[in-house]
Design brief:
Rossmann fold; six-stranded mixed sheet; Alpha-Beta Plaits; 7 helices; about 250 residues; 2 domains; globular; two-stranded antiparallel ribbon; alpha/beta; binds flavin mononucleotide; binds iron/sulfur cluster
Length: about 250
Amino acid sequence: MKWVQIVFSPTGGTQKVADILTKSLTNTYTTVDLSDRTDDFSQYRFDADDLCLVAVPSFGGRVPGIAMERIKKITGGNARAILVVVYGNRAYEDTLLELKNGLKGSGFRCVAAVTAIAEHSIFHQFATGRPDARDKEKLISLAGQIHDSLTLGAVSDDVLVPGNAKYKEFKGSSLAPKADDRCNGCGLCAQKCPVGAIPADDPSKIDADRCIGCMRCIALCPQEARHVNKMLLVAGAQKLKKACAARKHNDIFI
Ligand SMILES: Cc1cc2nc3c(=O)[nH]c(=O)nc-3n(C[C@H](O)[C@H](O)[C@H](O)COP(=O)(O)O)c2cc1C
Ligand code: SF4
Ligand code: SF4
């Protein structure tokens, strides 16, 4: 039996949640990085003994399209999957159901699911600093519940999760981050962009049509040279203010 984390985490919030849960469940695991566009995901094949924790962020209430595409290339082989959806304190709508359906399609048994909050990767004023100490405590206790259910064999192969069969429409983000004159052309953002939207030969540029607005290039730029248009940020934050105001909680489905 092997434990594997399968994670799409452009700016690290989803990874933090996945690490808290995984480390509460096992001492030994490997990680498949769904943001690595150079990896061949069809090489990952599991079998019925394996346990995979699959974690994605919610983008517009959906699984990020590129993460779903890559998950579909993996062979589940009847392995058990623990589903994790991380969101920025607004809502995750159909993300969990879409993740479950995608994993079932790849041959996984979906035995449990967790939803968790992390700092909003576009609007950092929402869920700032989360997952925090309270979240960590709660996530460890949720992992304990999953551990106990797995040990007792008291899990379904097809866990019930919320979501609409007709998924919420998400047309993608229009927030392609541009580089300013602090960019020294180091190329890190081009190397790490999950979809290759930044040309390696001129990383100060961006292919806005290809960009999924994941904000990784902003988060990792050592020069703090990449930014989203400030006016769009202010307008977007204003729209989300009410929906993000109350502290949302981490949750379990088992
Ligand atoms: C394009 C995009 C869309 C997002 N849509 C939502 C959303 O619908 N609801 C929500 O609560 N948070 C949303 N967020 C916030 C992320 O789900 C949250 O910050 C998550 O932790 C990001 O994962 P990461 O840190 O692993 O990149 C969105 C973030 C991005 C970049
Ligand atoms: S990481 Fe920053 S400095 Fe380096 S190429 Fe990208 S924008 Fe320029
Ligand atoms: S260019 Fe777009 S897709 Fe690539 S890292 Fe930046 S925000 Fe993400």
